Every structure is written in C-alpha cells, then in structure tokens.
Amino acid sequence: MSVTTTNLILGPATLYQGTFGATEPADTAVNSTPQASAWTDMGGTQDGVTLSVDQTYTALEVDQVVDRVGSRLTKRELTLETSLAESTLENLSVVLNGGTAATGAGYKSYEPLFASSATQPNYTALLFDGWGANSFRRRVILRRTLSTDAVAMAYTKDKQTLFKTKFSGHYVTSSIAPFHVVEATS
Hints:
Layout: E1 14-19, E2 40-41, E3 45-60, E4 70-84, H1 89-95, E5 99-104, E6 107-112, E7 124-131, E8 137-147, E9 163-169, E10 179-183
Antiparallel strand pairs: 1-2, 1-7, 3-4, 4-9, 5-6, 7-8, 8-9, 8-10
C-alpha cells in the first residue's frame, strides 16, 4: 500500500458559534474567515476539537441464511467535544445553551436559563475550520446543536480553567443534513 503523505493531517481547528439557521459561508469561501456578523470565534481551545459520528446499523436476518443479509442505518449520534480555553461569560452562555447577560460600569454578569423544562431549548450552530488533505483548509458545519453533557470549570493551583463541553448534533429537516463538510482543493 502506498502512502500519500500530503493526505496526513495535523493541526488545530478554529471553532465558531452561530445561531441556529445562521447564514452559512459558501463552499467557495472555505479558505476565508466566516462572516463576523453571523459567526463568533470562540477563542482558544485545549486538546483540540473532536467531531464524532457514531452510526448504528441494525442487521436484517432471515431463518434460511446464517449470514447477515443486510443492514439498515437506525441511529446516528453526532457530537463535537472540546475544552474552551477562554473561560469567558460569553462562552459560558454558549456551553449552557443560553441565558441572560448584563453589563454595567465596571462589570458584566450572566444568569443561566431557569424556565420550565417544557420550554424549547436554545439550539445553536457550530462551525470549525481546520486542515484537510494536501494542506488545504477543511470546514465542518454542525447546523443544529445543544450542549448536552455536564459543563465543568475547575479552578486549581496548577491548571488552567477550561470549559470542557460536549455538543450533540440534531435533526434539521428532511431536506437539510445535520452537518456539512467542505474541503478546499486549491
């Protein structure tokens, strides 16, 4: 087997947040920074940005054949995990799916959402830019996400405070995929 060394990828990604339904950059703009009015750079991350797509296939079986005769996709879990190195109140609001921010002379504050559990959650869109094959840029857009795991922020003597978080991707519509990947070719 031959190895194409230019297909090997190494390097960080830049993570952006937008509202659910934010205008997505055109595929032709894969080498450009997303429009600042629609996408907010979430700052530094630690230990990278990890996209996971866990697909569950259910086997089709018949009595007459001992082998699996087919499979059907019955579940897909899409997650993005990262540790936000910039522990700002703005990033805290994103990882806690919204809330109320206030600013005044010499201060800013944040309070999480605390309404009834029956209310609709505040979905967000995520976009990250990183490296792709041949040292070109790759962009991944997760169109409808929620932070669904515990959010931790530790204050310790010898470690940086981070917002460790996990976002889950969700169904959008029958005509819009939950995520999109584009890679530059030149």
